[in-house]
Amino acid sequence: MKVGVLAIQGAFAAHAAVLESIGVAPVEVRRPAHLEGLDGLVLPGGESTTLSMGLDRAGLTDPLRAFVGSGAPVLGTCAGAILLATQCLDGRSDQVQIGALDVVVRRNAFGRQVDSFEVDLEFPALAAGAPPGRSAAPFHGVFIRAPAVEEVGPSVEVLARLEGTPVAVACGSVVATTFHPELAADPRVHEFVLGRSPAGRR
Questions:
Q1: What CATH topology corresponds to 2-194?
Q2: pTM of this prediction exceeds 0.85
Q3: 78 is catalytic
């Protein structure tokens, strides 16, 4: 299995390490041609404005939108979640939105870098269909300049919340988290996403 990791900017190396740990070959995606032959895709965290401008420069915006719409498993984390949303509050007016998830997110909703925090999250979907030995134990969420999901459309499933606020959402094969699962030393989110079919069933 080959899974692309958008490598324009941000925490792509940490995601690649998680993929390697579960036997998946990561492919760094910097140009449209790098999307060919991939079985899935990760859109990592980073600085959403910088990431957006980098996509435009690389000619990746429309190819990414097409890949995300293909039914392949896709994970967007932090800034990647902002990319996948239909609308971003407190972002730039020219910021790229892939629009694969009918959600409204607010950039930096949990505060700036100095307000970063970690917390255990109830994420029961991780146990369903997981490899033997995986459990429904809480997932350790690492929040760094994290966005918040403020509105969720009817097609979107909320997978985890923090004090009532959605922090992990899904629609079909597309999953977004506002936290950084690649920093948790726990591959369950990546395993969960790569096990999703286009219909959202594992």
A1: Rossmann fold (3.40.50)
A2: yes
A3: yes
Choice among 15, 78, 171, 191 that is catalytic = 78
Which candidate, 132, 131, 143, 136, places its Cα nearest to that of 184? Answer: 143
Q: To which residue do tokens 């990746």 refer?
A: 60
C-beta separation of 45 from 184 below 8 A: no
Scored b (16 or more CB within 10 A) or e, 168-200 reads bbbbbbbbbbbbbbbbbebbbbbbbbbebeeee
User: pLDDT tens digits, the chain, 202 residues: what are they?
Assistant: 999 999 998 889 999 999 999 999 999 999 999 999 999 999 998 887 788 889 999 999 999 999 999 999 999 999 999 999 999 998 777 788 899 999 999 988 876 766 689 999 999 898 765 555 556 689 999 999 899 999 999 999 999 999 999 999 999 999 999 999 999 999 999 999 998 744 333 3
Check if the beta carbon of residue 19 is closer than 8 Å to that of residue 29.
Answer: no
DSSP letters along 2-55, please? EEEEE-SSSSHHHHHHHHHHTT-EEEEE-SGGGGTT-SEEEE--S-HHHHHHHH
C-alpha 96/C-alpha 83 separation (Å) is 6
**Active-site residue, 88 included:** no
**Annotated catalytic residue: which of 15, 34, 88, 180?**
180
Does residue 15 have an active-site annotation?
Answer: no
Active-site annotation holder among 171, 182, 190, 191: 182
Domain boundaries, the chain: 2-194
